Amino acid sequence: MTGSSRSAKYFFRPLAVGAPTPLTEVPARPSRAIHFFDPSNEKMAAKIPAMVGTVDVLLGNLEDAVKADNKVAAREGLVKIAQSTANLGGQSGPTQLWTRINSLDSPWVLDDLTTLVPAIGDKLDVIMVPKVQGAEDIHYVDRLLAQLEAKAGLDRPILIHAILETARGVASVEEICGASPRMQGLSLGPADLAADRRMKTTRVGGGHPGYLVRQDPQVKDGAADIEGPRSIFQQDLWHYTIARMVDACAMHGIYPYYGPFGDIADVVACEDQFRNAFLLGCVGTWSLHPKQIAIANRVFSPSVDDILHARRVVAAMGDGTGAVMLDGKMEDDASLKQCLVMVRLAEELAAIDPELKKQYDAIETVA
Ligand code: GLV
Ligand code: MG
């Protein structure tokens, strides 16, 4: 902490008189898929009530992908959907309600916040803030939300989720994650981040065939066969950023997410990207099309095999100390801790996903 930072003992005081007390811990609510919809699109909006209970998070998008002429309609559409859809958002519903507001330098964001919080603040679980550059952006939203929550008489704080999509944001990622007790998590924003970094890609997330490693050349007639056949492997353009996000989030007790995967048709590569993020520590991802919800739910739920193994390790490790051999492999306190991460996640997911609960419960019968 630098000399001018707020003291730790004041960190959890409301930033406005009458605002709800900040949370000391971010609730671990399942959020495998954050499904984006455009509230100005009436056809899409009409499908929302039927999606409640089928996806962990529904997010009304007000930012990019909504045309400038539709910004007001999107904001008003979101208010209408939140007010008229049963069981959406707030603390008890099966599906959380999030929004992505416009960027802090845009002409729309002030009206986004001053409209949404009084109208539907009790339903909004998380506000996603795009193009975050540093902790000062979070501080701005933090104070404004406290003022608006106080005025609206809300009794629980709305949380903030930042999109990591600027080079400076990546360089300041730890500071952003720790900027407020409202911080819920971070998503990767690969499209804006690529542009901001001046990467030479034209895609929304995913790999690139040009970003690869190539096997050494074979030797032919005593010389390297440069033009001969060699294996190549595509590398993951996003590995570095996701790994940084995961550490920054874990360090601050908040949650990391993949972001958009724009090639809707390529469900296979989408699943690969999501799985890489899951294995590295992410808890969920965005969904831009209903078919990505199923992929996300599958990938971000531990597999039945993993839970079977994890439960065996937990049972074999007794009081959690020492080491045991299982199937020829050493298990100890540290592998037990990994298994407990999986088992706890499975319990949280089973509590809201009856289909998954059935699969995990069936393990007990077999084991
Ligand atoms: C998401 O907002 C992105 O820019 O990738
Ligand atoms: Mg973006």
TrEMBL record:
One protein family per Pfam: HpcH_HpaI
Annotated binding of substrate, by residue: 100, 165
Transmembrane annotation, as ranges: none
Presence of the UniProt keyword Metal-binding in the record: yes
Cofactor(s) of this protein: Mg(2+)
Keywords for the protein's UniProt record, in alphabetical order: Lyase, Magnesium, Metal-binding
Gene Ontology biological process terms in this record: oxaloacetate metabolic process
InterPro entries in alphabetical order: Aldolase/citrate-lyase_domain, Citrate_lyase_beta/mcl1/mcl2, Pyrv/PenolPyrv_kinase-like_dom, Pyrv_kinase-like_dom_sf
Boundaries of every HpcH/HpaI aldolase/citrate lyase domain copy: 36-203
Positions bound to Mg(2+): 165, 192
GO terms assigned for molecular function: lyase activity; magnesium ion binding
Annotated protein name in UniProt: Malyl-CoA/(S)-citramalyl-CoA lyase
Organism: Nocardioides psychrotolerans
Lineage, opening ranks: Bacteria, Bacillati, Actinomycetota, Actinomycetes, Propionibacteriales
